[in-house]
Amino acid sequence: MSPFKIILIAILMISCNVFSQDKNLALGRKITVNSENPLYPAKNAVDGKINRHSKWMSENVKPPHIMEVDFEKYCNIKKVVIYTGIPPQERTVEESSQAEGFWSAKNFKIQYWDDANWTDIPNTEVHENRLTKVEFNFLNSINTFRIRFICDDGEPISIMEFEIYGSETNNPAPVINDTALAKKVIKKDDQSVFIKVENQQIGNTMKYVGYNQGYYMPGSNASGWIEYSGVNSLRVWTTLNSYVPTKAVEVDPNLNTVTDFDKRKGILRQNPESNKYLKWDVLLPLYANTEKTANTNPMILDYVLSELKRLNIDPVIQIGNTDFNDKWSNKWQQWQRFYALAYYMAKKGDVTMFAMQNEPNHKNSGMNLNQWISGMQIVSDAIHCAVEDVNKGYRKNLRPKMVGPVTAGNNPEWWAAVAKNIRTDYHGNTIDRDLIEIFSTHSYNSPAAGYLNRVTDIRKIITENHPKNFSLPIVYTEIGRWMNAYLIDKEETMDSPSLFTEWAGIYTNNTKNGAYGMWAFKFSNTSSDVYSQGVKSGHHFTWQGQRIVEDAYKNILQGGSVTSYNKSNAQMITDGVKTNASLWKSDTTSKDKWLIINLSKTVNLKSVIIYTGSDGGVYTAPDRIKNFKLQYLEHGTWNDIEGGVIKDNKFAQLYLNFKKVVNTDKIRFLTQDAGVIKVREIKGFAQGDGPSDEKNYDISGIQRTGEVVRLFAKGFKEERPMYKTSSNIIDENLDAITSFDSQTGNYYMWLVQRGEYKNKLNIDLSALNVPVGTPVSAECVSPNYFGEIMGIYPTDKDGKIKVELDKQSVLLLTIPSSNLKKMIIKPAATGTASKISIPSNGSVNKLEVQLNAAEPLKNKISYIEFPTAPVLKGERAFLKVVGKNSTDNEIFLTHVYAIPERPINAEQLTWNNAPLLDSKESLIRSVGTEATIVGEIGFSGTKKEHILDITKILKNNSTKPITFVIIRETRQMGDDLDKEKKVVIEAKGSNDAPIIEIWKNK
Hints:
By secondary structure, the chain is α+β, with helices and mostly antiparallel strands.
């Protein structure tokens, strides 16, 4: 070959390579979005600039957020790169302190136009994104002329750049006009809606509405609040190392064959409770005592199993352990351990559902996919054998179910692999049953819109990969609107309308998608090493081992003079006021920022409470001070206080109990946090004056999301039939679904409005043949209601009712199917117990409720007794009281309890003889045993009737006198919102006296 030809060929090869090189096809292309912030238009996402100032930001509209790129000719797409959030180098000090991924878009996927439809590109769906740059490479190029980014985030999202790499073809794209994106409109106007229920079953509700466990210790009120929640399942956290240590089973490194494994397994099963392998004398004490190793959910296992069995609640036992390998000696060891725990729990608590290692795909879990599948084969066999042996030995009829793979986030490769191997046992043989009966995964950070099709998508993966193309019941054993790492830095709380309405919508969409269950994470705001004062995402408030009521202790720092590093006035940090109206702010330039509290005398300081950032409660303060130390002056030298040096603080309000008493007359608060810092208050308490050392794991209150869980469980657990429910408008913020419970004879309708506009509902129930005058109750969670009944609406002659669904609110309608008549029960006695030792005068027509830990003599609670009467048993029963917050128009939140068979003597009622009153702590004791939680009432400044559903309580106590207690209890540390306020309620002698309204069958 001539040199000329060689050179020519080389040039051609280079030219071809250059021509075929992939380029960013999106750069400068036509881009369309369904919303955009005018300051950050869509064109910025394809301008080639990657920075926070040149980005597309969606408007504050409901998802999905959609961005489409049109190449105007067919292209072969090989790679997509998305830059989202804020580049690390451009973040402010405050922005850099947020959890990884806080600013990034989440819950998105990429689609391509297939000439007829938008089709998902495989493996491009991302849920819990923590990256600024997300890249997808495609093994096989995708031929299309349009690419779409679609995101279900519930907040405005930012995309700095959308890069699409590939090569162009010479094929022009067709002209299409019917796929233009409709611009999102922010709806604001109130609306009238017609809703119709038809007598047509369209499916079933969830089987399980559950919680993830919190603290569960004997002597606490946890059972009472779990019973009140109405859930029918609790996910209980255990580990093999704690409950079946290796010393309690046979460990034999010489076991090398499956034959030997099967032989020993057969011997053990012949006599599960007396064999040479399982050491029950080691195991049984572990179940009767508190777990010895550190645990974020302290419990005594025997107590938990007994209580859940009593409450008829099905546990899911989460068993943590990653010690799995391919050796038969290991398989035998693990089989014994899982068998022993499953056997004991089935025998003791009738437990049937078990799961192995939590989130095995998580980077911190330490398991790979093949290891987990091999473990699944051993664990599934162990728990099935265990439950079968309990059935055989104790004549039970339990049906064992393995729950798995309990993965974190979106993991189709795990789901597909598990489904493929679901009928292969540990021998490698194909069997005729599934190793997993319930398919489980976890999900966080998605709004309601993110669940429109998610269960359906998971079901598709399972059926496509299952050996028989079967599906499985699909559940979320962990689910939350936000993971705690993100929620901790948001202004939202579990009481925020924007959060609890999305939570309600998540229930709606997963129900409509055919989900089998949801376990909310988590029951209470338990503490951990990272979150020393509890997670923000708990649906109930709890005391993390210690009940702290700061106003009950003397603040020995109050009034101390304060000097600051920059000589600004800082006296407000010891004035006793912890609101934004009385805070100190630093400048932005100084590195060391300090405040010195000068006391007039030496004090013995043992603990402090520090308020930093803005006043949003214990948790909500994104501008809180993250790192600081407390020091005391001794012999002219500043010394760090042991227990007073804090790094990566998570809380706006922090209680610090020092390791030893500090004797000093000067305290210094020192921080090097950059930017402006805010200190609202520093309180100090002397040795012996502070929280009790007695352990306290009580639930202290419920948040609005918890009330949403309760109402949904009441109407939509246990696979009840669902009925076709439709409306005359399309509104992505409005939900309406209907079920029927054959046990109570009630229909239930779930109504959710996430938008900020009111809805006048005209509801047609005629197809259900509901009798005229049927009392339809509407329990409400909203900015003004905490789960109480906002009204009772009788059906008219056409079987219709009219109800107002307020903005950002949730309703549960209870619709009896039988023909009922009303009767009224009047109180036998009413009285107020006061901290002042004067007997209540039962003849007065006013009841009072008040709580002031700083001035306990002002404390008051009220009792309402109803007589013994068999007539109390009815199909529906309501407690009705009339009252108001007599101080201002803010909501004064009270707890209501029922105490059977504890009548009161109203004329002699005092603080010391009031039934079940803890006279020192001003709370009701024996909750869950002698006292039952009825609900919450929020009294405003307007005198009106308040209603609670007491049907279940009266059915359980139908022939007994029953007394109701209305009390304000401290819900969390720093809770003093109502300390100068008082509720006044009409009493027995009033025309608006409390009553029980009974609806009985005619």
